[in-house]
Design goal:
The chain is mostly beta strands. It is built from 3 helices and 27 strands. About 5% of the residues have low confidence.
Length: about 425
């Protein structure tokens, strides 16, 4: 089997030379992505003649033998082809994000068909195929009146000790064997024997998780070579998950190494994402969220959503809300060394942190929301309501009159009386503020 590198670049053409039943053939592939149906199609052209052999073949995965999307075109004698998943997934076909990473294309020899006049002759044909290195063929036994309906197929592969079914040979998917040796010095015996050719693919049923970052693999007594991730990065401890895990390996001839195509996935925590230490790990589905821990949002309903807390100034245990404490610390106050407060935004307007911009003239005088909280120009501080300084002037004027000290113009200053409500406010609408934990 040969692995054909693919990419998720839409509508691109590339040439590839494939070995089919011992002969080289050059094809031109055109990959097109159907945006409406969200699937890929393949056009295959004979590069030597420019003849389009097949067009608009959908790239799907399935169980053998339906997985061979060239099975109905066997008359072309261009081999068998399969779209293979490198790891479990919820979809049976690649999309515009995972072609070439989660899904890849493998190409094998044509399935050979043979006829025999007896079962004994059929067995002899199969033995000759084995001797010639062909691990798969279909032999039909025919009698005087035509086919007897007996079909003998080549080996399905050795039955593993743990009940794992062997995978079909060249016209199936991958040769598979059970691991021997140790967790980090791995051996295996394949039947038929595999060769160290470039992009050689094989499957291995692991016996244990790797305990080092440089495990080696030696199939059929061949020279042991280190196992890396695809591209050459070292494995992490446990990238081979453990006993019974089926690992897919590809041989890189230029760098004389085996590359593990489906390493175990180590997921990052919210704290690692927050602190930027998750680069070598995957983000778990429950971390693929629109808000990070410590984010505040407004909701237009009165029920606190799952995973959030109402911003009501509550004092929480740091141990119980460790990720939220890592995010906001004691910005909004703390009762003691084991608690911290969340924001209290009930009935309040939010103001952007001035951050020395000069838009908040009283930033330095901002106070803590609660005891132990931030003060000054920092997130978490508060201000009470206030008027900007201003002057109201007014006078009642009287002109003339008999006054003991003589006639004069004079004025009497008085207040304007009370007007307005309980606070100064703009037009507003109530929402509930919540914080992610």
């Amino acid at each position: 089997m040969q692995k054909i590198p693919l990419s998720n670049s839409p509508n691109h053409t590339f040439s590839v030379t494939l070995s089919v039943n011992g002969s080289n053939a050059v094809f031109e592939f055109f990959l097109s992505y159907n945006e409406v149906g969200e699937y890929w199609t393949l056009r295959i052209t004979d590069a030597s003649t420019g003849t389009v052999l097949l067009d608009s073949i959908p790239l799907l995965t399935d169980e053998y033998p339906n997985a061979n999307f060239l099975s109905q075109y066997a008359y072309l004698r261009i081999g068998n082809a399969y779209i293979v998943r490198a790891a479990p997934a919820d979809t049976d076909f690649p999309d515009d994000t995972n072609l070439g990473s989660l899904f890849f294309l493998v190409w094998g020899d044509n399935t050979e068909h043979y006829e025999a006049s007896s079962v004994a002759e059929a067995v002899a044909i199969i033995e000759s195929l084995r001797a010639a290195g062909s691990a798969y063929g279909i032999v039909t036994v025919k009698g005087d009146t035509g086919a007897t309906g007996v079909s003998i197929k080549g080996d399905q592969g050795d039955q593993g000790d743990q009940g794992i079914q062997g995978i079909q040979g060249p016209s199936g998917t991958l040769p598979i064997a059970t691991a021997g040796g140790t967790a980090d010095v791995i051996t295996a015996t394949y039947d038929p024997t595999i060769a160290l050719t470039d992009m050689m693919l094989c499957a291995l049923v692991a016996s244990a998780a790797n305990a080092t970052t440089t495990p080696t693999f030696s199939p059929n007594g061949l020279t042991a070579h280190v196992i890396t991730k695809e591209g050459g990065d070292p494995l992490a401890v446990g990238d081979i998950p453990g006993a019974l895990a089926v690992c897919v390996l590809e041989y890189n001839l230029a760098n004389t190494r085996w590359e593990l195509l489906n390493p175990s996935v180590e997921y990052s925590t919210a704290v690692e994402i927050l602190t930027g230490t998750e680069a070598a790990k995957a983000i778990a589905p429950d971390q693929l969220r629109l808000a990070m821990v410590g984010d505040v949002k407004a909701v237009a309903y009165e029920t606190v959503p799952t995973g959030w807390l109402e911003c009501n100034g509550a004092s929480l245990l740091r141990a119980s809300y460790a990720e939220l404490f890592t995010s906001i610390g004691t910005n909004f106050g703390t009762a003691d060394g084991t608690h911290f407060n969340i924001p209290d935004l009930r009935g309040k307007f939010l103001r952007g942190w001035d951050h020395a911009a000069g838009n908040d003239p009283d930033a330095a005088g901002r106070t803590a929301q609660a005891t132990g909280g931030q003060t000054g120009d920092h997130v978490g501080t508060v201000q009470t309501d206030a008027f900007k300084a201003h002057v109201h002037s007014g006078m009642n004027n009287f002109v003339g009159g008999d006054i003991a000290y003589g006639a004069a113009d004079f004025g009497v200053v008085g207040d304007t009386g009370s007007t307005g409500g309980n606070e100064t406010r703009p037009i507003n609408v109530n929402v509930m503020y919540v914080i992610k934990y």
